[in-house]
Amino acid sequence: MSNSRSTRHRLPPLPCAAYAPSSDCPLRCTLRTHVANTEVELHQHPWAQMVFSSRGVIRVHTGRKVFTVPPWRAVWIPSGTSHTATIIEDARLHSLYLDVDTGARCLAAHALGWAECRVLEVQPLLRELVVALAEEDLGGLPSERYGTLLELALLEIRKAAVLSLGIAVPSERRLSALCDAFLEDPRVDRSLSELSRDVGASVSTINRLFKSEMGCAFSDWRKQALLAETLALAAKGCSMSQIASALGYSSLSSFSFMVTQLVGMPPSKLLKGAKPKLN
Questions:
Q1: Could you give phi then psi for residue 83, rounded to 5 degrees?
Q2: What is this structure's pTM?
Q3: Over the stretch 28-50, which tens digit does the pLDDT of each residue have?
Q4: Are residues 11 and 134 in the same domain?
Q5: What region holds the HTH araC/xylS-type domain (predicted)?
Q6: The domain containing residue 249 runs over which residues?
């Protein structure tokens, strides 16, 4: 899934007035269709956002982390967080915008972590609630039905499973360029010497920067990036052997070892929850 930044179509975010939540309408939902290789420009807003696709893989950058998420996995973005969204494939992108006061009252009181970005599993009921809320949004003023849908949607968001899909990204210029290049084409057979040369740094310099900025070795960071790509490919319907080949593994067993080492289970078990779902 290699894409060139130079050929990306850059898109401004929606104007705030078009979808701003309020105390009267604390949860707004939008649906936009995007073509592959589109990047929604860097922006932030004074309310929380939950963004996911019902078709297509997306990548969300939020400061020091990047989330590559397949369909029906959502990125939670707290208010005031600068972020961009890259559309890897043609996608139907759903966004939920939650009023800050409502979010503080309904979410923060129930669990820690809502002040940070996280990836959530979007279960079937929440999917249908998002569709229904978007239809209510088009109708104008909130209705009695809207209030019921809102409370149920917030309950589903609170109980959604949290997935460990965030990948740390650095601030140092050369290391950031190297990580971005790897995420554009994540393969285990891409050597560190090649990646380092492309950003004008030595392997020893890059190794030192990984330790000082990321607190880990390149090989450890790479595994997390490959795991995120594994779930994205599984969501497209790829088999384990196809995924292993796409990620540059010479054998299925070496790919299986990597996944098991990271998450404590073989890919056959992990990927059961990542298969394509009906839209």
A1: -160, 160
A2: 0.79
A3: 998 889 998 899 999 999 999 99
A4: yes
A5: 173-273
A6: 173-274
